[in-house]
Please model this.
Amino acid sequence: MEKNELQRLFTRTQILIAPGYKFKIAKALITNFHQPLSTLLLLVAAITDNWKTIYEYALNNDFRFLSYGDGCLLFL
Model:
């Protein structure tokens, strides 16, 4: 971007990992806790069926959310 003096980059993807996605290589996911209604939360929901229970536990126990928040390790 610096080389071409670009301030913004616009692109598209045809891949959205959401519930129903069949993981081909990954057996686990290390991530932080994401905001409701975000596409990153869809990723978490795709890897574990009990994501609501996990997030409820995090909320009830004062876990930190977003970029500088607590992390979690989720297995397929």
About this structure: The CA atoms of residues 31 and 40 lie 9 Å apart. The chain is about 25% helix and 15% strand.
